[in-house]
Design brief:
Elements lengths: L4 H12 L15 H5 L5 H14 L4 H12 L2 E4 L7 H12 L4 H6 L11 E4 L4 H7 L7 E4 L10 H13 L4 E5 L2 H5 L3 H15 L3 E5 L8 H13 L4 E3 L11 H18 L4 E3 L7 H14 L12 E3 L1 H15 L12
Helix pairs in contact: 1-4, 3-12, 4-14, 8-10, 10-11, 11-12, 12-13
């Protein structure tokens, strides 16, 4: 593979690291009309979602380049009840060096080895993650506001955000009260997300819609619009704890809402699919959605993230196959 690997480095490595600043969406005053105007043609969205992965085929060096780009968009995540300080620190070590050294060399990335976009943890582990990532430039994202259900008192949820920011989290992933969406109480949803935005201060805010709980794509589209009006810098599909998490129809609905919001306000918002994205093939399908619907700018970590853990192992495995021509056991690509 000696002749092929330099094609990746020469063609893509500089663009790979030319990441734009994250969006800083100030939001706009609540306006019910654009929210009520959201309509979703279910059959058309499902048809588009079914055909998108087949419309693009990338092989060999191009596939390796797409997968390396996907790697740099991962929010490497551990959100388990048995998390420990040691597990989080091992995850941070993997975040710093997500590819084996021999793969980095073979792919031509020795001058600027790729890293993941962020490390995502519960609040108690923010300080440990910040310490473990010191000097790497990799931000810590904290799930907050009584993740995953979001049913704690408002003051408790706001205080959790403030505590994570004080401990060094530069990104906050908040969850909404699903009842506001299911009952169509859009003003209440706006006020809730706006209060969380204020609590985030300098940290960027990703709003998790928990789309598997919202029942319809129209609800997903309307909730996306309200969350962006309230100042969300990213909108995110799922906590990963719902029965249904990130799907391509949901992604299409949300990225089209992002496009409509940009056209309406001029403000740019990022997108984060999360939950159930575990294979390189899955990752590329979501990348194709971004490329087709929003353009190449949304293929960089400033505007696009995967919420994932096991995804990294499969991407590393596919890149190892590109380099060696053989699939290795997952044991050779341990997460942490």
């Amino acid at each position: 593979m000696a002749k092929t690997a330099p094609q990746i480095a020469g063609a893509d490595v500089h663009r790979l690291h030319n990441v734009p600043d994250q969006p800083d969406n100030p939001g706009i005053p609540f306006d019910r009309d654009p929210v009520e105007a959201v309509r979703v043609n279910l059959s058309a969205v499902e048809r588009r979602a079914a055909t998108l992965p087949t419309r693009r085929t990338v092989k060999k060096a191009w596939q390796a380049a797409w997968l390396t780009r996907a790697l740099t968009c991962i929010d490497l995540t551990t959100l388990s009840g048995d998390d420990t300080d040691g597990r989080v620190r091992r995850l941070c070590a993997k975040a710093r060096a997500p590819l084996r050294a021999d793969l980095v060399e073979a792919l031509g990335f020795m001058d600027r080895p790729p890293t993941v976009a962020a490390v995502c943890v519960y609040h108690p582990f923010v300080a440990a993650a910040v310490d473990a990532l010191d000097g790497s430039g990799i931000p810590v994202a904290a799930v907050s506001t009584a993740f995953p259900a979001g049913l704690a008192p408002m003051a408790t949820r706001q205080a959790e955000i403030e505590a994570s920011v004080a401990d060094g989290a530069r990104e906050i992933d908040i969850v909404i009260t699903r009842e506001h969406v299911l009952t169509g109480n859009w003003q209440a949803l706006y006020d809730e997300v706006r209060s969380f935005k204020d609590a985030c201060g300098p940290a960027h805010m990703k709003t998790i819609l928990a789309t598997g709980d919202l029942k319809t794509l129209r609800n997903v589209g309307r909730a996306s619009m309200v969350a962006m009006m309230a100042g969300s810098d990213f909108i995110k599909t799922s906590t990963g704890k719902e029965g249904i998490n990130a799907t391509l129809p949901v992604a299409l609905t949300m990225v089209r809402a992002i496009r409509a919001y940009r056209d309406m306000t001029g403000h740019v918002v990022g997108f984060k699919p999360a939950g159930g994205i575990s294979t390189a093939k899955d990752a590329m399908a979501f990348q194709f959605v971004m490329k087709e619907e929003l353009g190449s700018l949304w293929l960089q970590s400033g505007l696009f993230r995967f919420g994932a853990s096991s995804l990294l192992a499969d991407i590393e495995r596919q890149l190892a196959y590109f380099v060696t021509g053989r699939y290795a056991s997952y044991d050779h690509h341990a997460m942490a």
